[in-house]
Structure formats: C-alpha cells, structure tokens
Amino acid sequence: MARGGGKSGSLKDKLDGNELDLSLCGLSEVPVRELAALPKATVLDLSCNSLVSLPSDFCSLTHLVKLDLSKNRLQQLPVDFGRLVSLQHLDLLNNRLVTLPVSFAQLKLSLHHSPVEILSRLLGTPSSLLVFHSFYSWENQNLKWLDLKDNPLDPVLAKVAGDCLDEKQCKQAAVRVLQHMKVIQSEQDRERQRKLQAEREMEKKREAEQRAREAQERELRKREKAEEKERRRREYDAQRAAKQEMEKKTKKETVQSRKLASSSRPPQPARHKHSWSRSVLRALLLVLLCILCTLAVCKLTELQHQPLCVSVNTLYEDVVAAVQNHKTLQNMLQQNSQQ
C-alpha cells in the first residue's frame, strides 16, 4: 500500500507501540484484502470518502479496535457487522443509515447495572427520578464509544442513541444502542423460535393429517375389499341357488316324464309274460323242427335201419295212429252232437 499525504487515494499510517493506525482517503470501495494483510492495523480511518456500502468480507477484519466511517454515504452496514468483536470505538457520523444490523448486538456488551436502571429503561422513566444508584462495569464490554449523529435513523433507534456531544454521551450511546439491539435480537430469536415452533407444529399437523388420510384410505380400501368379497359371495350363492333350482326342476321334469312314459306303456309284468310265452313257443317250434328233421333222416336216409331210427320210426307210427284214432273219435262226437 502506498504511503503519503493528500486526499486522493492516499494513505497515512502511524506506528503507535505495537499498533498501526491507518487513514485512507479518496476511496469509493474498501481494499479489504490489503487491510487483512495488516493484522496490526487496529485503528482504521475511512472518514470523508464516498463509500456507499461496505463489502461483506469487511467483517473479516476482526482485529479492528477503532473504526471511523464518518462523513460517507453509507446506507447500511453489512449483515455480519457483529463479527468485529474487537471493536471498541465506532464513528458513524453523517451517513445515510436508517437501521443497524441485528448482529450489531454481538459486539459483546457485558453491562452490570442495578434493577432501577433496567426499570427506568423499560418504562422510559428518567433514572434521576428514582433515588437509586446505578453503576456500569466496562471491563467486559467491547464497544465503548458510538456516534450515530446526522443519520436519518429510525425514530426509535434515534431516541435510544441520543446525542454524542461529548465522551460521556458517546459512551452512553454505545451502551443504550447495544442494549436496544440485544432486545431486538432477543425478539427476533423468539420470533424465529416461534416460527420454527409453528412450522414444527404445522409439520406435525400435516403429518397427522397425512396419517389420517392414509388411515382413511386404508379403511376405504378395506371396506371396498370387504364389499367386493361380499358381492362375490352373493353372486356365488345366487349362482349356486340357481343351479340347485335348475337341478331340482330338471329332476322334477325327469320324474314327470318318467311317470307319463310309464302311464302310456302297458304294465311291465304282462310284457314279461308275453315275452316268456314267445320264448316257450319258440322252444317248442325248435323241438318240433328237430323231431321233424330226425324223422326225415330216419325215413329217407340209409340210417333208417339203425336202432335209434327204428325206435323213432316206431314212435312216429304210434303217434300217427293215435292222432287218426283221435280224429275218428272227434268225427263221431260231432255226428252225435248234430243228431
């Protein structure tokens, strides 16, 4: 970095013990990389420049103890401005700031005070009206000096900061602003926790609703399955009943047709008797045919002299004689009956 005097892009440095004081002028942006390379540069004067904003990596300069940003055009500070935890002196005079980042509360205010001071600040009552003693302990407080004059601050923040016309007022401004920002941070933390809790509750509610919907869907599927099973059972019972009814009807029709058939046919025993008589007649005819054949063989063939044929011929002649005698007797009886 260049050294020298003047107001156009010049830098003035001064070694004070082990600390290095830097003063940069004529800047439109902050050379953060170069400043980070100088960890002993604990005092930085960036006043009377044309700075509109600070880069986000400006908050990496955690070695800064005193920072002068007065008489610039700053409209806001980086969100992580609270990372400058070593900062004790901050001059923001004559800028265009409206609010401060919530991380401003991380500049490690550790203030010990009486309950009267707390009550006075909460109620907005001047502590001088309350006859109590309030005291401050600065040994654990980093930011000890703050100047926010000549900025279009939010009315609440402007009232909290007050004036910075002397050393005491600037120190009180640092205390009050840090307290105010801690309250805002606490409120935002509570709001964030509330939103987180609300989101968790909403998520639980959505999960519960999802489980309820899944349970309803399962119950609906179960009911539909039971209804389908019942419908199939009824269809099966109906088909079975229809089949049984058809079988009964068919059986009944078969019985009736058999009855009609049996009533239209002659009695079964007579048919059997008629068949038996035919069989007997056929047997007699067969025996007669055999006898005739035997007679023909015994009369007309050379076997007529055989003993069997002799007996057959004798029997035949006896039968013929008996038949003739029977005819003669019938004729006589007929004549007698006619007379």
UniProtKB/TrEMBL annotation:
Gene source species: Gallus gallus
Gene3D superfamilies according to UniProt: Ribonuclease Inhibitor
Lineage of the species this protein comes from: Eukaryota, Metazoa, Chordata, Craniata, Vertebrata
SUPFAM superfamilies given in the database record: L domain-like (SSF52058)
Signal peptide annotation: none
Origin: domain of life: Eukaryota
Feature: compositional bias, Basic and acidic residues: 187-256
The protein, known as: Leucine rich repeat containing 59
Listed Pfam families: LRR_8
Residue ranges of the region described as Disordered: 186-275
GO cellular component: endoplasmic reticulum; mitochondrial nucleoid
